Amino acid sequence: MTDSVRARHPVAPSAPLVADLSEEQLLARIFPHLPRGPRTLVGPGDDAAVVTAPDGRVVVTTDVLVEDRHFRRAWSSGRDVGRRAAVQNLADVASMGAVPTSLVVALVLPGDLPAEWVEGLAQGFGEACAPHGVDVVGGDLSGGPLVVVAVTAHGDLEGRDPVLRSGARPGDVVAHAGACGTSAAGLALLEAGLADVDPAAVASFRAPTSPLAAGPLAAAAGASAMLDVSDGLLRDAGRLARASGVVVDLDDPRVALAPDLARVRTAAQRLGVDPQAWLLGGGEDHGLLATFPPDAALPAPFRRIGRVRARSPLADAEPDVLVAGEVPAVRPGWDHFAG
C-alpha cells in the first residue's frame, strides 16, 4: 500500500486498510461473522452456494446501498450499514408473506477503507440475520471509489400463496405493522447536527428494524395485498393503490398513528417541523403495509390505519391516496431519481 492511500484515511499505523489485505485475508475477517444454519447445504467458499427450497418456489429480491447516497460513513458504522442492508432486503421478502432464508452480498470497497469497518459490516449482517434463522451464503468483492453494498435475499413461502400489491379490494381494511416516521426523524436530527436530542430515532435511521414475522402472519390471516414501507407511507400506499386499481384512504394520523406521533414529538419540536410530514412521507422504517378483508382478524402487531375505497370511473385525476378523505398536504415520500 502506498503512503498516499494511508494519508487520505488517517488511522493508526497498525490498523490495516482494505488496500493492505489480499482478498483471501479480507474474507477471512468476514466469514466468521456470517450465520449459517441447516438450510445451507454449501456455503461461502465455492463458486456458488446451495440452499434448500422445501416449497419448490423461491422468493427473490435485491437492493443496493451506495455510500453518500443512502448512508454516510461519518454517520454510520460498518455494523449499522450491515444491519440496514440486511433488514431492507429481509423486509421485502416478508412483505410477500414469505419467511426469509438466505442472503448473498456483493461489496465494492475503496482501498482506504479500514478493514475493521468491513468486519463491522459483516457483524451487522450477522446480528440482523441470525435471530431470524437467515444465512449469509456467499457474494463477491470488488474495489471502487465508494462503498457499495448489494444484497440479494431469498425466502420460503412454506406452501402459502404470495401476497402481492395488486390484491386490495374496496371495503378492505388498511393496516400497518412497525414504526412510522422514526427513521425520518433520526435523519433530520443528523442533518441538523442534533443527534443527542433523540438517540433512539437516530439509531432507527442508522440501523432500522422490521417486523419480519408479521409478513407470514398476515398471509396466514388472509391479507389481500402487502408491501414493505421503504419510501414513505403515502408513496408506498400509492403503489399499492395503483397496482390494485383502488384508492387508499388513510385515517387521521393524529389518531391512527398516535404512538408514532408521540415517539417523534420531541425531535419535531426541537426542529420546528410538523411531525405528520415524517409519519406520512418519511421512509426507511421498513414497516409492512397490508390490506385485509373487512371480516379478517388483524394479527399482531398490525393496527388499522385506514380503508380501501373504490376508484370512481368518472374522476379523471382521482388521487391514489387520501388522508381522512382529503388530498394529503405533505410530500408523498422518497423517489430514487426525483428525490
Automatic annotation (TrEMBL):
Pfam families: AIRS, AIRS_C. It catalyses: thiamine phosphate + ATP = thiamine diphosphate + ADP. Residues 45-155 form the PurM-like N-terminal domain. Substrate binds at H70, E284, W334. CDD domains: ThiL. Mg(2+) 1 binds at T62, D63, D140. Mg(2+) 2 binds at D63, D92. InterPro entries: PurM-like_C_dom, PurM-like_C_sf, PurM-like_N, PurM-like_N_sf, ThiL-like. It comes from the Bacteria. The lineage of its organism: Bacteria, Bacillati, Actinomycetota, Actinomycetes, Micrococcales. It is an enzyme of class 2 (transferase). Mg(2+) 3 binds at D47, D92, D228. Residues 169-255 form the PurM-like C-terminal domain. Mg(2+) 4 binds at D47, T61, D92. Its EC number is 2.7.4.16. This is Thiamine-monophosphate kinase. It comes from Cellulomonas fimi (strain ATCC 484 / DSM 20113 / JCM 1341 / CCUG 24087 / LMG 16345 / NBRC 15513 / NCIMB 8980 / NCTC 7547 / NRS-133). GO terms for molecular function: ATP binding; magnesium ion binding; thiamine-phosphate kinase activity. Catalyzes the ATP-dependent phosphorylation of thiamine-monophosphate (TMP) to form thiamine-pyrophosphate (TPP), the active form of vitamin B1.
